[in-house]
Amino acid sequence: MPSYTPVQKAAIQQFTGFTNAKESVAAKQLKNHNWNIEQAVDAGTIHFEDDEGAIMKRKADHDLLNDRFFASNNNSSAPTPATQSLNKLFDKYRDNAKGEPDTIGVEGSMHYLSDLGLSLDEPVVLAILTELNAPTMGELTREGFVDGWKRLRAPTLADQKSTLPNLRASLPSSPQGLFRTTYRHTFRLALSPGQRSLPLDTATEYFRLLLSPPSLNWSTATTPWLDLWLEYLTTKWKKAISKDVWEQTGVFVQKSLEDE
């Protein structure tokens, strides 16, 4: 076999394991699609050679091949192509590769989000950090990064960018789904080291970010719920927001929208 990277070799093995194609044919097909297995399958009919050298045609099963790309082989401890791709991408953004090899810090996180075409004032950033199980706003872990993007089936930066429209659309339309998990995780993201409650000004900024368009709109034709809540917090409450208050607010948000 010619000289290929470990990720390319793994992709060839995955491809040949499914199609029974020769390695040379698998490599050619993958090269034609920039080593993207899913795109190679999406292209339609795959030509490959059987053991007798005859040319055969077969329509590859997209779901099965895609699952093999992302799922671990039960008979092998070798990382999947998706895992290898994600680990390589993670390594690119590490701030301290020697001291903290499994962590992306503040600078790397900002660089990564910028490469995704995002800014911190977008609510979809919170959704992404939730999907990646980020411990704070300025930190990503290798485990969360790899597992999160594998779950979303996005092993490359380009794939990850392609998930953004769906995530943006899901936030305002899934109060019991993505919005709920994002809202709950945001409390953890917003805490500073050593804090157990959010300062009121911090909490109100996150309430605004999460509870108004383009995220979930906590307002109805008859009641501007978010405005009323923020007015109460700043004029009556005037205290930090505990985890319990944060979560009870989320419950009330959903209940108030269901009732109208």
In short:
The protein is mainly α and about 260 residues long. The protein contains 13 helices and 6 strands.
Structural class designation: mainly alpha
Unreliable spans are: 44-64
Strand order of the largest sheet: 1-2
Written as H for each helix and E for each strand, in order along the chain, the element string is: HHHEEHHEHHEHHHEHHEH
- In DSSP terms, counting alpha (H) and pi (I) runs of 4 or more, how many helices? 13
- The outline comes out as elongated
Q: What percentage of the residues does DSSP assign to strands (E)?
A: 5-15%
Distance between the termini: 65 Å
Count of β-strands: 6
Structural features, described:
The chain is mainly α and 260 residues long. It has 13 helices and six strands. The strands form three sheets. Strands 1-2 form a two-stranded antiparallel ribbon. It has a two-stranded antiparallel ribbon with strand order 3-4. The chain has a two-stranded antiparallel sheet with strand order 5-6. β1 and β2 form a beta hairpin. α1 runs antiparallel to α5 and α7 crosses α10. The protein is elongated and about 70 Å long. The N and C termini lie far apart (65 Å). About 8% of the residues have low confidence.
